[in-house]
Specification:
Length: 230
């Protein structure tokens, strides 16, 4: 009788191990499918930006290849003046700081609104539209050199401003429900919530400050060097 019971226990344990392995295999397959889907599908943010970019390209061609704002600001005369132009850094700093702070406050207000997700993707689409319109306008005027001129206008400070934008709207990019659940569990504690909010604010201000410094002291030099090719 005892031997029969031991045999029954062994068989039951073996069945539990088989079931456990099958569940592990299923979980691994599900994780693989999620990873494969994530790697093969473009991010929604990229899709929205590219959609705006394509609309900007179409708008440029429908307008007859004319973009008066960009052309008046970036014609050859202005590029030639830029080669020997000396920036008043104190005045440029105050102007840029005031402008960027207003933009930062705007995206923070958008992120805190009830339609923050819609506004986030709308802003990305609009940025794509402006990028498409600007780059095709510059290519229309200067050929392949217009692409490099386009990038020189937004580097390196544009990278930091983009990071700030993504951090401010970070809760709208989270698509993993498990991560969201864990985040909500942690944020139920007021102390953790305050610490995380404080860290996020410091991070945003730090990256934002680096972007300002890059725009004031580095980007003008890049633009001046790029203007030498025109």
């Amino acid at each position: 009788m005892k031997c029969w019971m031991n045999k029954f226990d062994v068989e039951e344990q073996m069945e539990e191990q088989v079931v456990y392995r099958v569940e592990q295999d299923n979980d691994a397959y599900i994780d693989y499918r999620k990873l494969h889907y994530k790697n093969t599908m473009l991010d929604n943010r990229v899709l929205v930006f590219l959609t705006g970019f394509c609309i900007g390209m179409v708008f440029f061609y429908l307008s007859g290849g004319q973009s008066s704002d960009e052309k008046s600001l970036l014609d050859r005369e202005h590029l030639l003046l830029m080669q020997s132009f000396e920036v008043n850094q104190s005045g440029f700093l105050m102007y840029t700081l005031g402008l960027r702070i207003k933009q930062l406050l705007f995206i923070v207000i958008c992120a805190l609104s009830s339609i923050g997700g819609l506004l986030a993707y709308s802003i990305m689409g609009w940025c794509g539209f402006e990028a498409g319109l600007l780059i095709f306008s510059l290519v229309y005027q200067y050929g392949i050199k217009g692409i490099f001129l386009m990038f020189s206008m937004f580097l390196p400070h544009g990278i930091f401003y983009c990071m700030v934008f993504l951090i401010v709207f970070r809760k709208y990019w989270l698509s993993n429900t498990k991560c969201c659940h864990n985040e909500e569990t942690i944020k139920n504690k007021k102390l953790h919530q305050r610490i995380e909010s404080f860290k996020t604010i410091l991070l945003i201000l730090l990256i934002f400050g680096i972007g300002i410094l890059c725009e004031i002291y580095i980007n003008p030099e890049i633009m001046r060097k790029m203007a030498l090719f025109f």
